[in-house]
Write a structure and sequence with these properties.
This protein is α/β, with parallel strands linked by helices. It contains 13 helices and 17 strands. Strands 1, 2, 3, 4, 5, 14, 15, 16 and 17 form a nine-stranded mixed sheet that branches. An eight-stranded parallel sheet has the order 6-7-8-9-10-11-12-13. It binds zinc ion. Zinc ion binds next to loops.
Length: 443
């Protein structure tokens, strides 16, 4: 493994407990870990001159559906609300197979890497034509991002009153068996793990109450995390009240879906009592501002969540509802959106960057990531602030107000994933050609 000396960084936003910002320092990386931070350091490894760079921990993406990079900007789904949007896309997704899952994940992961992301979760909840979670894990190994794939699922098809077509749902016993298979095959609980698997029924409106309960028992038995969509919009809350006789937070609590090992995507419609429940139980939230705007779902009460002590991270969400996968762009959107309802002092650029890095790492249970400190994993983003976007900025470290939207260099576990703005771990041009050919075939 290559050792590195990141030399003379203009500014380092450490995201450590004290929120320290350092100027003109070096960072020495050895064996995938941050070994030393200071001035005048030496190393036998490769040197990166960071004099024009703001250096941050790698950004952490807490919610995605990588397979959707193959269905961006589908005409019938461009202007629909959540349920109509899903019904447009389900028949297209039903044609996917292993290759579609692999290529779309490669593209989605490379897009994340370019935007500074070093650790991402993924929520794959449909497995047509022999597709498996394994396909996306293979893609992540090649691209080189730290990966938390979650074994999603849908079990209530149209004929049972659910939303997805019957062809896309699975038997609940088969779902649980495959969860066990992928956890046993891929989950790594050790510090510095590159792959951690989670259990993730798609949403309360596409699986049964029994599966939600069984999934929670299984995850706790195996020591893995739980993830699903919750309280995404008004339709979602209305479904909960009509079918379960309670709000989404109550439903989650009743089925064992709160706790330090659980994180829910969206949570746009959480009320005050639900925010208190999440804070008390240490339940995490994946805030997906662009997707929430794109689908007209609303503005998640992130300021109230943070003030109450809820763990919040960011998610780009699937590329059929964003339709981009730029994580630093998502951080800027998060800060803008809180200001729409709460005023210009509702969220600072530095707080939004903290949510994007340390916040996401906490949501995913990664105490070893999300900050630049000795002993933490060497997941490091370097942002060149000598370009047009930063010219004239009085505070280049306020990256989200004025700054680049792509990294110059990116390290994950000490491996260089992006060099001079380009992903260098696999043949990106070839993957783009294949992705476009597959998209054309699906259309
Ligand atoms: Zn989602």
């Amino acid at each position: 493994m290559t050792d590195w000396l990141i030399r003379n960084a203009q500014t380092v936003l450490t995201m450590d407990d004290a929120g320290a910002e350092l100027s003109g320092v070096d960072i020495r990386v050895s064996d995938g870990v941050i070994a030393e931070i200071g001035t005048g350091l030496t190393s036998t490894g490769e040197v990166i001159d960071a004099a024009s760079c703001v250096v941050t921990p790698g950004l952490v993406n807490t919610h995605h559906h990588l397979y959707q990079t193959l269905t961006r900007a589908v005409p019938g789904g461009q202007d629909a609300l959540l349920f109509g949007w899903l019904q447009t896309l389900y028949p297209i997704w039903a044609k996917f197979g292993p290759e579609e899952m692999f290529i779309s994940a490669q593209i989605g992961l490379a897009e994340l890497a370019q935007s500074g992301c070093t650790l991402t979760s993924d929520h794959l909840y449909l497995y047509p034509n022999g597709a498996r979670l394994d396909d996306t894990i293979a893609a992540a190994r090649e691209v080189g991002l730290r990966f938390h794939p979650t074994r999603g699922s849908m079990s209530i098809g149209e004929s049972d009153g659910g939303l997805p077509p019957d062809a896309l749902v699975e038997r609940e016993s088969a779902i649980l068996e495959d969860c066990i298979r992928v956890i046993d095959a891929f989950h790594d609980a050790t510090e510095g793990a590159m792959v951690r698997v989670g259990v993730a029924p798609c949403s309360p409106f596409s699986v049964s109450r029994d599966l939600m309960r069984e999934a929670a028992l299984l995850a706790r038995d195996k020591g893995v995390m739980l993830h699903t969509h919750l309280a995404e919009n008004d339709e979602d809350v209305a479904y909960s009240q009509a079918h379960f006789g309670c709000r989404p937070g109550q439903y989650a609590e009743d089925l064992g879906w709160t706790g330090d090992d659980v994180w829910h995507a969206h949570c746009v419609k959480l009320d005050g009592a639900e925010i208190d429940l999440f804070a008390r139980s240490r339940t995490g939230v994946a805030h997906c501002p662009c997707s929430n705007c794109r689908l007209g779902s609303g503005i998640a009460p992130v300021r109230a969540m943070r003030d109450a002590g809820v763990k919040v991270g960011l998610g780009v969400d699937g590329s059929a509802s964003n339709d981009a996968g730029n994580l630093i762009g998502e951080a800027r959107q998060a800060l803008l959106l809180q200001r729409v309802t709460r005023g210009a002092d509702a969220m600072s650029a530095r707080e939004a960057m903290r949510i994007a890095t340390r916040g996401g790492a906490e949501v995913l249970g990664r105490q070893d990531c999300g900050q630049i400190a000795v002993g933490k994993r060497a997941d490091i983003a370097m942002w060149d602030v000598s370009g047009i976007e930063s010219a004239g900025s009085w505070d280049p470290a306020a990256l989200l107000l004025a700054g680049p939207t792509r990294v110059k260099h990116l390290l994950v576990e000490g491996r260089q994933i992006v060099r001079d703005g380009h992903v260098v771990t696999f043949d990106v041009s070839k993957a783009i050609r294949r992705q476009n050919a597959l998209a054309a075939r699906l259309a």
